[in-house]
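Project standup — Tuesday

K.O.: blocked on the structure for the chain from last sprint. Re-posting the sequence here as requested.
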Amino acid sequence: MMVFSFMLQLLTSRGIMVTLRGIAVFLLLSVLMVCMTGCVIEGKTHSSDVNTNSNVYKLSPRATVIYAGKYLPEDITVSVPAFEKSGALTKAVFVLQNLTDGNIVLEYRVEWKKESGFPMRITDAWDIVHIAPASIATLASVGDDAEAYSVIIKIRYPENN
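H.V.: unblocked you, prediction finished:
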């Protein structure tokens, strides 16, 4: 608005007659310029953690899922984990849903991080889950340390190892 009043003063001080049509055109161009330069679209974050086809999705500030297979994001969904204290340790519970018409066998691994982002003990072991068509599997993981805060859930088909 300040720019508009400045331009109006500048034009009238130079003896240029400002018409209603000129003001309307100026406002229209200003709005178009703001719309074209002020819009930002956020996209998916892609990373390669397990192989070059990995897709990384931030589910929440405390949870990230890494699909280590080309078709995994189309075949399954992962819920945002629920976190709770189990004594001194933190527990995360999440749901995998099979979106296909066939049985799915998956390998998954949950890696814990401290609140600072520093990784906890990482193992090479993968767990296996079988999910029937259009069904869900509820999975849980408990952090090994009282400082466990967030999780990275890695999911892959067994042939991707």
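K.O.: great, moving the ticket to review. The beta strands are 55-60, 63-67, 76-78, 82-86, 89-98, 104-114, 127-131, 136-142, 148-156. Residues 47 and 56 are 6 Å apart (CA to CA).
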